[in-house]
Design goal:
Elements lengths: L1 E3 H4 L4 H16 L3 H14 L4 H4 L14 H21 L1 H11 L7 H7 L11 H11 L7 E5 L4 E2 L3 E8 L4 E7 L3 H22 L2 H6 L2 H15 L2 H15 L10 E4 L3 E5 L3 E3 L10 H21 L1 E3 L7 E4 L5 E3 L5 E3 L2 H15 L3 H11 L1 E2 L5 H13 L12 H14 L2 E2 L2 H20 L5 H6 L2 H12 L2 H30 L13 H31 L13 H26 L7
């Protein structure tokens, strides 16, 4: 139903005051203590105590040798998690969408279930959204000729309405829900506290490779960006520039953006999963696929990519037959050198150059002190051989390849860049999109057709003006200061004044072992002192065996006093460390 401006622009001062009061009360009701109780209540309601009931499944959490029964149990956990996230709202729905990308953390039966997360919630009353539009937009609703009161879509973060600008085109109006930002900030505060505790309980090897605190910090920063419509507008404008060379790709125009409102071009069409089969010829589908894939590859190479590029987020325009990526709220960021390393090992894999592909993979991950690099390289080498000349529809697709690199790395206690898993998931989504659009063509061949584009991007990033200027500046500094630095070194040598500062920092695992050894030694001394004291009290030795100034009672009291002091010392150490796995 389409409503005219006169029909919807009826907020009187009393209604405005009521809406302001409601929004204020809703925000005030969101506190850390209330959200903590809510989270615990929902988790209990959906039976996540299942983990405690059968904790043995945790030992097979990410093992390759899981049985069918283990996968069934993990799937049940995934169902419970999905229901919990959906009930807890936007923060946890977005967290679930991020965790789907981290198959190095969660096993596949759980991530497959989390992919079913529904980001659809009942729509808020239009009066509330109208109040936000009136508050955020300089002209308020007067900038529209008409606007529909029923939203096109209602998600946990925002609602989208169809409208027509005054003397302008038909547009889509995206309005942020008023309490979302406060809810995100409160939930993240609670999540951070819990994650800190979980991080301390991780095994030493896993804690060295997996930093949950930084994972949550990255999630928080990206989520807060998504809660600002101006950031989404900026991303759309940047990607429109990237997509210009590709005729089959179009990014919707942005007409206006504030913190809570985004007004953009309305796309009349279908999602890429729903367009009629006979709408394109094979040649048109192939050409569209090549343009869309090359556009995405370009964004992956520069490290500024659409992180949610699945089929439902790509529209086919009925009038222009162009592919239109939508919903630029989730934008991935990653070092462009990492992206280039991924495309380099894809090239080596196609050529069956496993050793070179392994070298590129080692540029992505960072081994820790617990990593057996020989074993790691052997596993990578064997894995790459499966992907040589893999066919369309095979389980050895390239989206899976990047995810498997991450999985093998985490199994060998390597540190994985936080942005890599999201990159891999987005890349896998583009491969799925290619299968929807043109299943007759292998995605491997599509990426291969972009080799020239990939090499051009790599060369331009290595040998552009700024890179050369930086190299020149560093070289000039080195040459210009070399005589002075050499002179200083020779002066120190002449006056026999050469000093070296050496700082030894104990590794965390070694420190824990030393703490455990000290605690055990203290406990042994306490036990021995107590046994000796009680034994002496019950003994009756001849007086000639004792010194004149000592008695059995005095010796026993001394041992008891030593035992008491050491007990206090041990309790103080336990309270100070507060880490049960480091006590004994």
């Amino acid at each position: 139903m389409t409503a005219t401006i006169q029909e919807v622009n009826t907020l009187n001062p009393q209604q405005i005051e009521m809406i302001k009061t409601k929004i204020y009360k809703d925000k005030s009701s969101i506190t850390a203590s209330k959200r903590t109780r809510k989270i615990i209540s929902v988790m209990s309601k959906h039976g996540l105590a299942y983990l405690l009931k059968d904790a043995s499944i945790l030992s097979k959490w990410n093992k390759k040798n899981r049985t069918y029964e283990d996968d069934v149990k993990l799937h049940k956990i995934g169902v419970r998690l999905r229901k919990v996230f959906e009930e807890l709202g936007p923060t946890f729905i977005k967290l679930g969408q991020v965790l789907v990308t981290r198959q190095d953390i969660l096993p596949e039966p759980i991530t497959l279930e989390l992919e079913k997360l529904l980001d659809r919630v009942p729509a808020m009353d239009f009066e509330i959204m109208q109040y936000i539009l009136e508050t955020e937009l300089p002209q308020g609703l007067d900038m529209f000729e008409w606007i529909e009161g029923k939203p096109l879509g209602s998600a946990s973060l925002a609602q989208v309405y169809k409208a027509k600008l005054l003397d302008g085109p038909v547009v889509a109006v995206k309005v942020l829900r008023p309490t979302v930002e406060k809810l995100f900030e409160t939930d993240i505060t609670v999540i951070k506290k819990w994650v800190k505790k979980i991080q301390k309980l991780l095994p030493l090897e896993l804690a060295a490779s997996l930093d949950l605190n930084s994972l949550v910090a990255d999630y928080y920063s990206s989520s807060m960006n998504e809660l600002n419509m101006q950031n989404e507008a900026r991303s759309m404008n940047e990607h429109r520039t990237i997509a210009e060379p590709y005729e089959g790709v179009h990014i919707a125009e942005v007409y206006s953006a504030t913190n809570s409102v985004l007004i953009m071009e309305f796309i009349d069409g279908w999602t890429i999963k729903d367009f009629p089969v006979d709408f394109f010829t094979f040649e048109e589908r192939l050409e569209l696929l090549m343009d869309l894939a090359h556009y995405y590859i370009e964004t992956f190479l520069i490290g500024n990519y659409h992180a949610d590029a699945h089929g439902s987020n790509i529209m086919i325009d009925k009038h222009t037959k162009k592919a239109v990526p939508i919903d630029f709220g989730m934008i991935g960021k990653m070092d462009s050198l990492h992206g280039q390393a991924i495309f380099r090992f894809l090239m080596h894999t196609r050529l069956n150059q496993a050793e070179d592909a392994v070298e590129c993979a080692m540029d992505l991950i960072q081994p820790t002190i617990y990593t057996d690099t020989v074993k790691l390289r052997d596993q990578y080498r064997a894995m790459f051989l499966h992907y040589v000349n893999s066919t369309q529809g095979s389980k050895y697709n390239w989206g899976r390849l990047v995810l498997e690199i991450i999985s093998i790395g985490i199994q060998n206690y390597c540190k994985i860049p936080n942005g890599l898993a999201l990159w891999a998931k987005a890349f896998s989504a583009t491969e799925g999109t290619a299968r929807w659009l043109c299943p007759e063509v292998s995605f491997h061949h599509v990426v291969e057709s972009a080799d020239v584009q990939i090499m051009k991007r790599m060369m331009s990033s290595r040998f552009n003006y700024r890179a050369n200027a930086s190299l020149l500046q560093e070289s000039t500094k080195l040459i210009g200061t070399l005589p002075r630095r050499l002179n200083k070194i020779l002066e120190h040598l002449y006056y026999n004044d050469v000093k070296f500062n050496l700082q030894v920092k104990m590794e965390r695992s070694t420190k824990d072992i030393v703490q455990q050894s000290v605690n055990r030694l203290v406990l042994a001394i306490i036990t021995a002192s107590f046994i000796l004291a009680t034994g002496l009290m019950t003994m009756n030795l001849p007086s000639e065996l004792l010194l004149p100034f000592l008695s059995l009672q005095f010796i026993a009291a001394a041992f008891l006093f030593i035992s008491l002091l050491l007990s206090i010392f041990l309790l103080w150490r336990v309270w100070r460390t507060r880490k049960s796995r480091s006590f004994f």
